[in-house]
Specification:
Distance between the termini: 34 Å
Number of helices: 10
Number of strands: 11
Order of helices and strands: EEEEHEHEHHEHEHHEHEHHE
Structural class: alpha/beta
Largest sheet: 8 strands, mixed
Strand content: 15-25%
Length: 247
């Protein structure tokens, strides 16, 4: 892993999904094979493989403090092209510093992560208004997780963290995206832990080498995605959990 400290020019960026997004890091240590954020290499100049580099934007909180006072209030996605709680966050605490500012200005935000490290900041999250915290949980099968998300936290750790946040009164969600083999077993594990669910299929532009290498073409065909999404929707509907299928 090659890590560098960098100084960004801005931190509160426009987003197509939320009003803004904050990315305190360029690159992600999780290095998930299917990650769409690999496109970042086209503009950052990194030659290292995705998952082998991270730049920490050490001036992130200073930039946010300046920008938030002059931009219209809006919802913020933490984060769009990296995991805000990847391992380096333990050292740099850039996400925590930015959350402190968002809360101080009463801005709403949504955190999406795969790391239970988010529990470290539960003291800040409880002080926020209109705060949502979600985990990307693609399968109930941790062996499958190891193939596609080898450097991300185990599935059971994510589910335990989601449960703890929900019990603490946080608004929580789960992203079953992309669905991997074993995703059909998630409803029972997520019951009572997530207020809403988002379901999506694999984007084969990235990560296709993994399912080809392990002969998963049939297991992850279009028929698999549509069938699994239908099964998940049926289960969540019966549980009374809000869900959305986005493909």
């Amino acid at each position: 892993m090659i890590t560098r400290e960098s100084f960004a020019k801005n931190i509160l960026s426009k987003s197509k999904i939320y009003d803004y997004t904050i990315n305190c890091y360029t690159g992600c240590q999780h290095g998930c094979t299917y990650c769409y954020a690999r496109f970042m290499k086209r503009t950052t100049g990194h030659i290292e493989p995705w998952g082998d580099f991270v730049d920490a934007k050490v001036n992130a909180s200073e930039l946010l403090q300046k920008e938030i006072s002059r931009k219209p209030r809006g919802g913020v996605w933490v984060s769009g092209v990296c995991d805000a709680y990847q391992p380096l966050e333990r050292k740099y605490r850039l996400t925590r510093q930015c959350l402190e500012i968002l809360v101080a200005y009463d801005w709403p935000f949504t955190i999406q992560t795969k790391s239970p490290l988010v529990l470290r900041d539960i003291d800040i999250l409880k002080r926020g208004i209109d705060v949502e915290v979600g985990f990307t949980i693609t399968t109930a099968d941790d062996n499958m997780r190891r193939l596609f998300e080898p450097n991300a936290p185990p599935i059971n750790e994510r589910i335990r963290a989601l449960d703890e946040l929900h019990k603490a009164g946080m608004q929580t969600f789960a992203m079953i995206a992309p669905m991997l083999p074993g995703a059909g077993e998630l409803p029972e594990l997520l019951q009572g832990k997530a207020d809403s669910i988002l379901i999506d299929r694999m984007n084969y532009r990235y990560g296709d080498w993994v399912y080809r290498k392990y002969n998963l073409e049939a297991a992850m065909s279009s028929e698999f995605f549509y069938r699994t999404a239908k099964e998940l929707a049926s289960s969540f509907r019966k549980m009374g959990i809000e869900f959305q299928v986005v493909f």
